Amino acid sequence: MCGENQLFAILAQNIRYPEEARQNNIQGTVVVSCVIETNGRMSSLSLLKDIGGGCGKEAIRVLTALDSLGLRWQPGLTNEKPVRVKQALPIKFRLQEALPYYINYEGDTIYTRFDKGADFKGGLDSLVSFIINKLDYPAGWEDSCKTGVIEMASIIQTNGNLKVINQLDFNNLGMDFQFESLRLARKSGGMWIPAEFEGKTVNTTLPLRVVFKSDAKKCASINEKFDQAMILADEGATLLEADKTDEAIAKWTQALALVPDNCEILYYRGTAYTNQNKKEEACKDYNRIKELIGVTWFEDIRRLVCGF
User: What is the pLDDT of residue 159?
Assistant: First the structure.
């Protein structure tokens, strides 16, 4: 169980500022009444004070969601025994003008707001052609038939170079494949058009995805399964955007029948389950990802939902 300061910090991180409140410059404190049960759960949530603009509804939503995901309050104590306690929870809504950039752990200034985004010289078609022609399947691995995606979190720098800051090997392809991804990124040096903000070039982030498929004849059926799974995964993402979560999950389940250890699709389905408060199903997918790759890219969320 967490103390109040920790829980209020988690609440602040998970608040989604309502668009109506943002547009009408509504700020202030919402107060929610609830009962803290002896097991640390919340019950009987109601609004004592609402500031309008959807803020009250959002406060109830985030408290309910976090309670469903397993967050617990310290219960009251009487004679060292836990007792039910009525609590008033103040939740602050503050509009802040965010800076157009942040500084990462390596000291790079990264702009999140810009007038013109970064691009590959020649546009998307040229980038796709570059990846197809310059990405090498690792020597000695052709008969392994390994297929998968590696996504590189990258900075498009003001000099037109690309700097890789992290890699996600969604299919656990291994070091040789990760090295070839980095080699491709280095080959693209000077081929990028940097972003612009207020008349000057600036650094921005961009995800660069590369797909590995062996050209060996014996791998044709495996490649076909992978392609089918990627189509199903994309269809699932489209359904999710249309708020058809159950249909999206069904598509991802079909995709995982073809590629059971695809961590990216497992993450999509697990996150959809989380949003449906289906903790057991979500943790099955999240923990499978941890088994496959050791350290997840969403470890804070996994621990919050599933524990250690």
Answer: 95
